[in-house]
Design goal:
By secondary structure, this protein is an alpha/beta fold. The protein has 24 helices and 16 strands. Bound molecules: FE(4)-NI(1)-S(5) CLUSTER with Oxygen and iron/sulfur cluster.
Length: 632
Amino acid sequence: MSLEFEVTTVEQMEADTARLYETAQKVGIDVWQDRVKNQTPHCGFGEKGICCRICTMGPCRITPKAPKGICGATADTIAGRNYLRMAAAGAAAHSDHGRECLWKLYDAAPDGNFHITDAAKLLRMAEEWGIETEGKDIYEVGREVALKGLNEYGKLSGTSILLKRANPERQKVWKEQGLEPHPIDREVVTAMHMTHVGCTADPTALVHEAMKVGMADGWGGSMLGTDFSDIVYGTPMPKVTEGNLGVLEKDYVNVICHGHDPAVAEMIVNASEDPELIALARKNGAKGINIVGLCCVANEMAMRHGIRMVGNYLQQENAILTGVVDAIVVDLQCIFPNIGPVSECFHTKFYTTSPIAQIPYSTYLPVTSQNGGEIGYRIVKEACENFVNRDEGKIFIPDHKRKAAIGYSCEGIKSRLDTVTNSHVDEELDTYKPLIECVKSGVIRGAAAFVGCNNPRVRPDYSHIEIMKKLIANDIVIVATGCAAQAASKAGLLEKEAKVLCGEGLRRVCTLADIPPVLHMGSCVDISRMMLLATGIAKDWGIDVPQVPVVGVAPEWMSEKAVAIANYVVATGIDTYLGVSPQDTGSEKMMNLITSETRDWAGGAYYINDNPDDLVNAIINAIEAKRAALGI
Ligand code: BF8
Ligand code: SF4
């Protein structure tokens, strides 16, 4: 086995961060490392989930001497309500992002800013939803399908139209357990209403609703977001890009797109290809225009255009501290408000583009379907003009970057599997059967779906990378999205050559299918792709999802969206391994519900451990136990 392959270590990444921190100190700006110190120790009541401030009789905090809030709410009620509100906010965020993607399809026109890029996927969805396409212009079909999708948010009755995509056993469980979500907006409203003062006090009902609002996200808003992004911007297929701060270029105009909704980033990419703007960049002394992505929109752009990924959540300030960012343009979600003050210390222009994320110290240019092209052009033009304003004395670009093979949507994975289908397995194409055979035979032991953020509560990126390395060494294949996928990219685990770190079985599969051991599936809304992958495997195998040797892993999660995700992953029957505890430890009942009782409802629950070594061992044991139960 060749041992030449080396990962970029967390220590190397930390050295880059330390060097950029010196710049922050030099220019006199605080960054997250400073603020973590200022916020430590955290409020114990908040950490345990037992502070309630949902009415002005409070805030009420639970202590041994004061076991109830003024209204009589107990720790169980307060922690349960806080938990459900997090899930509801997360579902709202993902789903509203999905809604924007649907409007882009509705507004798409051959001569407009947004187009239909994957017409075949649109026609498949029209067929799935019973929409007649015969003799219709594709854009007319697009509008009809978009309207049907938009209706999913506020239809008067019924459950998510997408539930039918799951295997029949799952659908039965959801029906029996009352986990079929109402229309998306209604489910978020229900969660908010249930948690209003004087409404639901029963923690079991609160956790049940958290799963339901999670389902409205994962099998509703997020899944719509993914499908309609694919239709408008293209379905990702395998390709190669690069990741980490080293993708910033000293000699180029650098524009960072940050956020989640691909619409604005697409406009920026289009503008960057305009010959007039390239000429402007050159006139100002740059070699060209370098567009890079940050956080989930990086994943979206990388998968579709091969745009390079500058980093994940805790790298957003670092990127600006390099001194070479001529513009940073954000859409929504996971944007540090401190991007404004940090940009002010440099020549960097900071643009906000969504009424959903309006941030001080930015130029606010709300983007619509109609003005997107114009605004994209304006931002890139201003970035080109800004190139001359850099301060040489503040420039430092860490040289770390790694190649990354990306774009493994379900369609992308199947396209790779089709190349290895052979006679002793099956002649069929477009199936997960070759993968299932590998799992059955033990060549691959199982799969782990990595999701989630960075969180300074744990050593950033360390848990992601160390857990991934140990899992692939144990022949467990990984699918990853969001900031977890970017941690892998920074380390080099998305390189096909990373197969040398795998056990013998997985290494062979990586060679045969020409894939890396960590498969990049996209952004956080694309965890819906993982749900379709898991239910697709269950269908092709003829078993239910909880039996499949697959787990969810979120070692460094932090956001409300992650709570929504964890709830739908568990409701889909997949145990989820968390490296950061939900803020519920002040209620034994709540902890018992989320780590055990939900398994009785839907087949999945959380396992929580902030020690990455213990977490990875628990994952390996769980996968082996699922195998044993299947007799494989
Ligand atoms: O949606 S992984 S820090 S960027 S919340 Fe945010 Fe977390 Fe990153 Fe994407 Ni997901
Ligand atoms: Fe206190 Fe009850 Fe009001 Fe919460 S709802 S702040 S526990 S009185």
